[in-house]
Amino acid sequence: MRQTNLSESHLSEFESAIAVERQSESTFTAELDGDWSVAGAVNGGYLLSVIAQTLRGNSSNAPDPMVLSTYYLGPSQGGRADITTRTIREGRSSATFAVDLTQDEEPKITALATMGNLAALPDDVATTATPPELPEPDQCINVAEGPGDFLKSAPLVKRYDMRLDPETAGFAAGRPSGRGLLQGWIRLADGTEPDALSLLAFLDAFPPVMFDLGRFNWAPTMELTAHLRAVPAPGWIRAKLSTRNIAGGMFEEDCELWDSAGRLVAQSRQLARQPRG
Amino acid sequence: MRQTNLSESHLSEFESAIAVERQSESTFTAELDGDWSVAGAVNGGYLLSVIAQTLRGNSSNAPDPMVLSTYYLGPSQGGRADITTRTIREGRSSATFAVDLTQDEEPKITALATMGNLAALPDDVATTATPPELPEPDQCINVAEGPGDFLKSAPLVKRYDMRLDPETAGFAAGRPSGRGLLQGWIRLADGTEPDALSLLAFLDAFPPVMFDLGRFNWAPTMELTAHLRAVPAPGWIRAKLSTRNIAGGMFEEDCELWDSAGRLVAQSRQLARQPRG
User: In chain A, whose CA is at the least distance from the CA of B269?
Assistant: First the structure.
C-alpha cells in the first residue's frame, strides 16, 4: 500500500523518488532512484528523505522529523532497499524510532529519529544567527552549468536548481578560498515548494565544503544529524555550508538552511572522511 | 565480570561512577551514581560516558567512540540501569552499535555509536578554528563556589573543577550578555587526566548556554551527537559553548573542547527544550 492517496502520476519527481511501500507493521521497501546519485552512490541527503518518508507511515500525529541521526555504513545503489523500523518511545506529541536500511542484506544505514509536528510548535524566535548575504539567484553560479565530466559523475545535480554565491565558488575556477565556506540558493528542479522532507535532502545536496579548501574528491559521510526547526515558507532556500575542524582524516560539515521568510529552518552537522588526493 | 583488571579501589572517582558489569554477550548493568545529577536527574554528559564504557566491552580493537548520537527519552535517576547493545556493522578498524538504556523497564536512552581507535588516526591537522582565548584558570570564576541553592540542586558541579571566563559569566551577577556564549576551563575533580570517556562527560557538564540569555532553568536535552577527534593531551581542557537558533520552544547548543596542546579534540551539538520561566 502506497503511503499517499494520490495516484503515482500526481506525485512530483521528488515524491516519486522517495516513495516507500509498507510490507508489514514495521517493514517497508523502497526503490532507490539512481538519478539521485553522486560518484556512483545514492546521495546521503536523498536517503534522509527516504528514511523520514518511511517514518511518516508509522507516526500519523507526528509527521515531521524534529531530529534525525543517520549513520552511513556503506554506499547505497539505485534499486531495492529493505527498511525496518522499531518504535522506541511513543509520547503524546512526539515519537522516537530506530530505522535500519539494507540492500541485498548488507546494512547501508542505521538511524534514530524523533518525529513531531513542526506546524504545532510555538512561534517564539530569539535566534541570534543571521541569514547568509547572497547575490540574487540569477547573479549566482548555476551548478547544473558546471563542466560535463562533473555533471556526468553527479546526476544528482540536475534534481535541484542550485546557485552558488560567486564569492564562495572560486573553486570552480581553480581558486578555492581556503576558508571552508560555501553559500548558495537551492530549490527542487521539479518546481515543488520546500517542505520538511525536501529540507532534509537539501542539507546534503551541495558540493562538499572541502572543495573550498582545494580538496576535490567527494567525501563519504560517516554520520549526519539534522535538526528541523520550522515548516519552510515557499520559495528559494538559502544554504550556508562550513567546516572548521579538519584533522585525523576526517572533517565536520555544518549546513544551515534559511527560508524565504528569513527563518533558520534546518541545521545539520556531519562527520565525513577526508577526500584523498 | 568487571571490564577492567584493576580492583575497584584502584579506580578513580570517575571510573567507578561509569563502571558497567557485563551480564551476557549483549546485556550490561550499571549503577548510575546520583552524585552526577543536576535538578534531580542524572547528567546527560555522564550518561554519554556510561554508554561509551559499555561499548568498550564489545569492541576491543575499537575502544573509542568516534561519533555517538544519544536520544534522551526521559530523566535517568541514580540506581540500577539495564543496557542492551546490538552490533550493526563490524569493520576492520571500526564498528557501529546501537545501545538502549532502561531503568525499571522504562526506556531512558537510545543511542548509536561508531567506535574506532583515536590513537591510530593519521596526524594531519588543517583546522581553521582557533581555541577560545581565556584568562588563566585562577583568574576565572570557580563554578563550585556558586550560590548554595545552585550547588544543592547540582551535585554534579563538585565532580569537576570548572572555571568560567568572567567575560561570559555575567549571568552569575544577574548580567547575562545576551550573546549565547559560555567559555571556561574544565578537568575532573578527582585529578585524573582527560581521556576519550571524560571528554564525553565534559561536553555536557557546564551550565546551559541559555544562562547567558537570561533563561535560568535547566534545559532537558532531546538529542546530543558528539564527535571525538583526537586523544586529549594531559592538563586542563578549554570549553566553548554557544547557541544561535532559539525558536519553536527549542535551541541547539554547540560545545567545543580544546586540549592543552591546542587541538580541537571534541565537538558536540545538542537539541534541547527551552527552559520555561
Answer: A269
Distance CA A96, CA A85 (A): 10
Contacts with B, A 49-108, CB within 8 Å: 66-67, 69, 71, 73-74, 88-89, 96, 98, 100, 107
Euclidean distance between CA atoms B142 and B149, whole angstroms: 16
CA B11, B162, A269, A275 torsion: positive or negative? negative
**C-beta atoms of A244 and B129 within 8 A:** yes
**Same domain for B96 and B187?**
no
**pLDDT bracket for residue B276 (50, 70, 90):** low
**Tens digits of residue pLDDT in A227-263:** 999 999 999 999 999 999 999 999 999 999 999 999 9
How far is it, in rounded angstroms, from Cα B267 to Cα B229?
8
CB neighbour class for B14 (10 Å; exposed up to 12, middle 13-18, buried from 19) = buried
Amino acid at residue number A20: V
Number of Cβ within a 10 Å radius of residue A78: 17
Residue of B nearest to A130 (CA): B244
CB contact under 8 A, A245 and B271: no
Which pLDDT band, with edges at 50, 70 and 90, does B9 fall under?
Answer: low
How many domains does the structure of chain B reveal? 2
- Can you say whether residue B145 is alpha, beta or left, with left for phi > 0 and alpha for psi between -120 and 50 degrees? alpha
Same domain, B19 and B94: yes
Kind plus residue range of the DSSP H or E element containing A31: strand A27-32
Contact B121, B87 (CB under 8 A): no
Whether B215 has its CB under 8 Å from any CB of chain A: the answer is: no
**Distance between CA atoms of A71 and A198, rounded to whole angstroms?**
19
Please state, in angstroms and as integers, the Cα–Cα distance from residue B31 to each residue in B50, B51, B183, following that order: 10, 12, 32
pTM of the model: 0.95
Contact A18, A29 (CB under 8 A): no
Cell numbers for A232, please give them.
519552510
Kindly provide the residue ranges of all beta strands, DSSP E only, lying in chain B, ordered along the sequence: 20-24, 27-32, 37-38, 41-42, 64-72, 79-90, 95-103, 106-116, 141-142, 160-164, 181-188, 221-228, 237-242, 246-247, 250-258, 264-273
Q: Are A52 and A113 in contact (CB under 8 A)?
A: yes
Check residue B6 and give its pLDDT.
47
Q: Is B189 in the same domain as B80?
A: no
B80 within 8 A of B29, measured Cβ to Cβ: yes
Residue B36 lies in a domain: yes
CB contact (8 A) between residue B250 and residue A229: yes
Domain range enclosing A167 = 137-273
Residue type, A66: M
pLDDT for A9 equals 62
Give me the interface pTM, i.e. the ipTM: 0.94
Picking from A90, A118, A146, the residue at the C-terminal end of a domain is A118
